[in-house]
Amino acid sequence: MRKVLLIVLAVLFLLPFTVYADQKQDKQAIFDELSAYVDTDPATMANVVFSLGDAYSRANKIDKAITLYEKASSILSSNEDFLNRLGNLYNQKMDYAKAVAVYQKLTVLKPDNTWYYQMLSNSLSMGGDKEKAASIWKDLVAKKPDDANILTQAANFYNNANDLDNAIALTEKVVKLDSKNTGYAQNLASLYMRAEKLDKAEAAYKAISESTKDQWMKDWASGELLNIYQKQNKLDDVAKQYEADLAKNPRNMSSYKILGEIYIRKGENDKAMGVFAKAAEAFPDDRAINNRLTDLYESNGKYAEAAAQLIKIIQMAPNEPYLLERLANIYDRGNKKDEAKGAWQSLAAKVTNDAGILSRYAEALNKWGDVDGALAQLKKAQAMDLNNMSYTLRTTDMLINAGKKEEAKVILGKLAVEAKEDWVKNEAKRRLDMISKAPETQPQAISAPPASPAAAPKPAVPAPVVSQPAPKPLVVEAKPEVKKAPGPVKKGIFGR
């Protein structure tokens, strides 16, 4: 019996080692099978290498990532992704000589891929060999003088190297190759500007404005032309030219815009407002013109005119209720408190899920002396955004400034105990301490709480004034909305 017991114990003792040995054998068998499979289909190894390489990179273990891709590239020597990642890692390590070797290999493997030439040139430049970097593009341009993409990339290289003459010469060739591409034309005009070749830049921007059907592009080109005229001190002469043009053709939208902007730059805002007012009459549905006219009215203190113009925009864009907030602010600046309240009420009725709107509405009401109305809006805002206790803290500000310190103390006491965030608890305690130390005869003003992700800056609170009856909400009759597809924003490679 004892012998049987000893045998059982021995088997139990050796069992884990047997299991471990079996597991090790199974793992090795899998590795052997995978190795054999990789030999027949080497590309299957790539995903594993990428996963491991990405993990090393995220952990900032660049050396391990480099070693991994070096080994992988030795097995799959023509794998573009391995080599490209390896070249990038060498650049990160500032081992530019090795990066150059990698990208040279890639340009041989994929001679039609301009990206690899660009990376080769960049690696040479970062390694201090500017001449060889330039020779990469010289050779490419010589081999493919009619390839607009290569010429553009070469121009980009020279532009970054501050060799504007070569950059301009190449971009002029590109524009001749594809005269309808406004992106190329933009690049050329921008290069002329950078090189202070203002006459050529003027001609280039005029050509863009005349050839494009895109209004955004026309306006952009016009703005650049104004920059040129201002540099040349030609604004007076150009203004006369556009005045004459408009007298002959009063339906030229671009002329209105340019002339108006010229007057603004000259500081003649009354003339600018007159031009944009005529433009708005000629093109009543153009949003940009109406926006500009509204801005001019408001910035020049013509608040009644600004409000009237903004109401027209609201009628054009009934699905943009936030315009009502701007309308309320314009009315407020023009001392039209009842109209401002009406605009706020209309906005609050249209947008029912934005606590920020209610908070700003509350600030306006508090400014006008309607403390009860302001507190009601803050209560709604807090109920809408339970995680942002700044609305409740702002409520205590208003209560204290209104002389209702006991109500404020109740709220602050509850916050000091129940608030989830420590900064809110600490701020509530600080305010309670200030109330206790404040003279009884003075309403205690509270400073803003410390910066917090949830806290927002608060405007100064004026002394209360007598509340006025609430006005009726503003009702703006909406025109049928005509939707226009916006034109694509075209940008050149030089950042324009």
Task: Characterize the overall form.
Answer: flat
The percent of residues in helical segments reads over 70%
Largest sheet, described in full?
A: none
Compute the average pLDDT. Answer: 84
Give the N-to-C terminal Cα separation.
Answer: 94 Å
What portion of the residues fall into strands of 2 or more residues? under 5%
Give the total of beta strands: 0
Q: Structural class, please?
A: mainly alpha
Radius of gyration computed on alpha carbons: 35 Å
Tell me the number of helical segments per DSSP (H or I, 4 or more residues long): 24
Low-confidence stretches: 1-15, 441-496
Task: List SSEs in N-to-C order.
Answer: HHHHHHHHHHHHHHHHHHHHHHHH
In words, what does this structure look like?
The protein is mostly helical. Among the domains are: 11-36; 41-143, Tetratricopeptide repeat domain (Serine Threonine Protein Phosphatase 5, Tetratricopeptide repeat); 370-475, no CATH class. 71% of the residues lie in helices and 0% in strands. It has 24 helices and no strands. The protein has helices at residues 2-40, 45-58, 62-75, 80-92, 96-109, 114-126, 130-143, 148-160, 164-177, 182-194, 198-211, 215-231, 235-248, 253-265, 269-282, 287-299, 303-316, 323-333, 337-350, 355-367, 371-384, 390-401, 405-418, 422-437. Helix 5 (96-109) packs antiparallel against helix 6 (114-126), helix 10 runs antiparallel to helix 11 and helix 16 runs antiparallel to helix 17. The radius of gyration is 35 Å and the shape is flat. The chain starts with a helix and ends in a 59-residue tail after the last helix. The model is unreliable at 1-15 and 441-496 (pLDDT under 50).
